[in-house]
Amino acid sequence: MSGTAQIGVTGLAVMGRNLARNFARNGLTVAVHNRTTARTDALVEEFGGEGTFVAARTPQEFVAALERPRRLVIMVKAGDPTDAVIQEFAPLLEEGDVIIDGGNAHFQDTRRREKELRGRGIHFVGVGISGGEEGALNGPSIMPGGSAESYESLGPLLERIAARAKDGTPCTTHIGPDGAGHFVKMVHNGIEYADMQLIAEAYDLLRTMAGYSPAKIAETFRGWNTGRLDSYLIEITAEVLAHTDAATGKPFVDVVQDRAEQKGTGRWTVQIALDLGVPVSGIAEAVFARSLSGHADLRESARDLSGPSAAPLGAAEAAAFADRVEQALYASKIVSYTQGFHQIRAGSEAYDWDVDLGAVAAIWRAGCIIRAAFLDRIRAAYDARPDLPSLLSDEKFAAEIGAAQDDWRAVVAEAVRQGVPTPGFAAALSYYDGLRADRLPAALTQGQRDFFGAHTYRRTDREGSFHTLWGGDRSEVATG
């Protein structure tokens, strides 16, 4: 078998199969391989007319089918299965070849793998792929990490299959070294968690307090999707809410158990944010909201706790309330993206990746789950000021969130008064107020820490670290 394939895909479950088809549809010769050869045969038999596939039955055949430098995409379950595939194929490769992990790997695993393979002269590229099964087939947002040299070889192929923004730009770019691509994909998913939670809270407020039916809320969301909230998640939310269950005739959302599951990337985002000391409170509340929803026994035991019940509004009041919810949703979404981009910057600094935040916003404009119209404005904000400390430091975003804040506060206050949980909206508002506060109560917290643990504190009127001798005459001593 001569090396004619420009790229190969091993692991032909739905994502791997669709990615291989995407490469083939875009004019590339694609070697395909799966541990179970029946999947390889089925792909070629069913989709062979879409392009040129080279079916390989063994790892040796697969590697032999690839032209140099070999580019081998692994699409298997993250963790040990990925390590097993790498260990199987790496001995068959040569210096300069490229292994690409397209799964949802933890970025620290990617950093470890890249370092190990670099020592053997093999490039390892951790690629975040967003867009699900449809994106893998028709054009995802692609976030590759790894060496610049590897991107020179791989980048043109990824650009062929990536989604394209409205201006025609492929939604992929070299994110940075080693684990940068998987880190950015992790944060993307964290923002996705927050975005979904905020949309769910908006739905709950409109249903519980405005008294809207799911069909009416779907209509409202469709209207929002024609304006500044234009996004994939708002679009599909309207579709879900408009759907009627065929078996019962009830709104689909009413026959689904209210337990949201998760695969882990949202938790990783929060865990790594804690390690980096980055406040991602909105993302964290979204993760915890899913966790709370899953504790059915705990929730059942608390059903009789005292508290207010929401009273639906009249038609005119409901329409005005819906407008306020739109303001609160938009402002909270800006905060979620603000926190996500802050975390990417912090990770970039911690691991010396030099991630271009404007480029990240640009490749999220199409293909990915959090694609939204205002990402083009986020790209422009970071392009204009690469050192922008926060999206809320951008004049236009700051003006918009300032204009929305009265309605935002009113929505959160009324939700609290009527006992409707809005952890995402409330966390976003607290973050906003925390940023704008002249002084935070952290001064007291640090005083407490010095009292019980001699952790020291810094003064506002002079340099250095200090400790108060609390048990005696409470004199102050300089410690550094």
Average the pLDDT over all residues and give the rounded result.
Answer: 96
What profile does the largest beta sheet have?
A: 7 strands, mixed
Please tell me how large the radius of gyration is: 25 Å
Query: How large is the share of residues in beta strands?
Result: 5-15%
Number of strands: 10
Low-confidence stretches: none
Task: Give, in spatial order, the strands making up the sheet with the most strands.
Answer: 3-2-1-4-5-6-7
Fraction in helix: 40-55%
Describe what you observe in this structure:
This protein has 480 residues and is α/β, with parallel strands linked by helices. Helices cover 54% and strands 9% of the residues. The protein has helices spanning 14-25, 37-47, 59-64, 80-89, 107-118, 132-138, 148-161, 180-208, 214-224, 232-242, 265-276, 281-294, 296-301, 315-351, 357-363, 375-384, 395-418, 423-436, 442-453; strands at 7-10, 29-33, 52-55, 71-74, 98-101, 123-130, 141-144, 457-458, 465-468, 476-478. The strands form two sheets. Strands 3-2-1-4-5-6-7 form a seven-stranded mixed β-sheet, sandwiched between helices. Strands 8-9-10 form a three-stranded antiparallel β-sheet. Helix 5 links the parallel strand 5 and strand 6. Helix 8 (180-208) packs antiparallel against helix 14 and helix 12 (281-294) packs antiparallel against helix 18. It is globular, with a radius of gyration of 25 Å. The termini are far apart. The relative contact order is 0.09. The mean pLDDT is 96.
